[in-house]
Amino acid sequence: MMDRRAFVAASASAVIGSAWPTLVRGRQQSRTRLILLGTGGGPRPRKDRASASQVIVVNDVAYVVDCGDGVARLLAGAGIPLTTLRHIFITHHHSDHIADYGTLIQLAWAVGLDTRLDTWGPPPLEKVTKLFLEMSAYDINTRIADEAYPPLAPLVHPHELTRGGTVLNEGGVKVSTTLVTHPIVEPALAYRFDTPDRSIVISGDTAPSDNLIQLAQGADVLVHEAMYLPGVDRLAARVPNHPGLKQHLLASHTSAEDAGRVAQQAGVKLLVLSHLVPADDPAVTDEMWVAAARVHFRGPVIVGKDLMDV
Prior knowledge:
It is a single chain. The chain is an alpha/beta fold. It has one domain: Ribonuclease Z/Hydroxyacylglutathione hydrolase-like (Metallo-beta-lactamase, Chain A, 4-Layer Sandwich). The protein contains 12 helices and 14 strands. It has helices at 2-16, 19-28, 71-77, 95-98, 101-110, 125-135, 137-147, 210-215, 232-238, 245-252, 256-266, 286-293; strands at residues 32-38, 53-58, 61-65, 85-89, 117-121, 156-160, 165-170, 173-180, 188-194, 199-202, 221-227, 270-277, 301-303, 308-309. The strands form 2 sheets. Strands 6-5-4-3-2-1-14 form a 7-stranded mixed sheet, with helices on one face. Helix 1 (2-16) packs antiparallel against helix 2 and helix 11 packs across helix 12 (286-293). The chain is globular, with a radius of gyration of 19 Å. The model is unreliable at 1-29 (pLDDT under 50).
């Protein structure tokens, strides 16, 4: 574990310079951890980046935001026991954000989760939850009958969110949400976590958003999706069977430059670029991502990597 953390710190220090040691010391003394599980944008499986997901851990309770493919395995890789899962937050229903939502619930239960699990997100979250449990009924019922598992369905409580405001306030953790702009997906949400020692905002997928700027005011950390615009044409050329991809990206997402603008206007202390598009273009270096964000943002910038502990 220490080797991985040391590697991450060393890699990030090259990106954000002298600000990083202070950030590391603060994180090590903190009761709140933010771990980027998957940092790639879009549903395509990749060798080095999973789809978007992150976990916030407060007092050994796990709050997962988005469930891209492989999220349970990524949690294991981060050393987070699935039995500590207490809340799941979904920003929107694109597959790279919800593909393993049900699988995470089922696997957490399969390895010992026997306490209440609340899930939060836009409609049709209740229907998605119900249908997943129906689809998985054979495995669930077999384990209940054969291995004396507790019933799963009574543990899972989905909550559908359609507007901004405070959605949770318990155990010293306050979670707020706002609507963001991600056409044609409506509603799409961003979340803010205020804990006893940190404030963390997760943008979800969004075009530049005034609502997000308001939600993120003064936050310690803003995890914002980011596109590197010169790489969009190369990405679109690789998937000719999706002729609307470039138009979708430009209308529904945020360039690294504009992510920096949002961070500056919100007055956040640290900007973390994630949900990267393109996520695996060797021509786009970390230094290029950071330079783009720093056109407008004067604070430290981190380019997210899978399993990075921020």
